[in-house]
Amino acid sequence: MSDAQHPVAVIGATGQQGSRVVDALRAADQPVRALVRDPGSGRARALQDRGVEVVAADQEDPASLRAALTGVASLFLMTTFEGPDGPDGEVRRGAAVADAAAAAGVPRVVYSSVGGAERGTGIPHFESKRQVEQRLAAVLPATFLRPTFFMENLTGQLAGADGEELVLRLPLPGDVPLQMVAVRDIGTAAARLLVEPAAVEGDAVEIAGDELTMDEAAARVAAVRGRPARYEPLPLDVLGDDEDMRAMFAWFAAPPAYQADLGATRRLVPDVRDLGTWVGEQMAAARAAG
Fold first, then answer.
1. Which of 134, 153, 156, 191 shows the smallest number of beta carbons within 10 Å?
2. Threshold 0.85, pTM exceeds
3. Which stretches of the chain are DSSP H helices?
4. What are the residue ranges spanned by the domains of the chain?
5. What is the per-residue pLDDT across 188-218, written as a single tens digit (0 to 9) for each?
């Protein structure tokens, strides 16, 4: 376990993945330092209320990164290709964090990349994450956590009035298996690796909690929700001129695509969620929210 006197740094702590990493670290009584652009934001203040140290740092400001990363036990990093500069910006920001972490003497980093990053997929935002991996590996000890398709990508499709048939839609044939994982389990796996780097062999692990065709996924959703559901495949043309997403879904459609180590996933996250468990949790959360 990490030295209790030194916090684990989390970049992206107010976002989807980073917040789950914080949850898992705090559940294990690990001190956390959240690096955020705006410490005065509502989400940042909520972290402070939970005992998380919040410091200002910007991936476009190397000096702020070096200062914020000084004295930490380890670092969780995720990057995004979203924004006007796309994958190129993701590479630039990831390199800036890598260099700042090395300059600050960060002992090790866990980087949330993507399943298949190392396999030359040609998908722009997979290739950018691979470049970030390579930069990190060149300057400091790093472990690459490579999640598969997020179950949360289906959240918006689970809504609907009671009794109505649910229709899941993706630009993917219904009979092609797709590995997937819940974001909460990504956070649990990352937290484990941050405090116990020997929890996996080697410097990378691809993780998934389930593997289903979308036809099977619809049947699973129907069984859990107790209402009809079906899957309707869409053509790639629905993605328009988004070459990145077109490349990704074309890759999904020509297996093997994701190649998660399900055994290693379960060793990191013994209660890893399958799709049915995740859907049940979404239903419970919706009921609790009123």
1. 156
2. yes
3. 16-27, 42-49, 62-69, 86-104, 124-139, 183-195, 214-225, 243-252, 262-268, 275-288
4. 8-288
5. 999 999 999 899 989 999 999 999 999 999 9
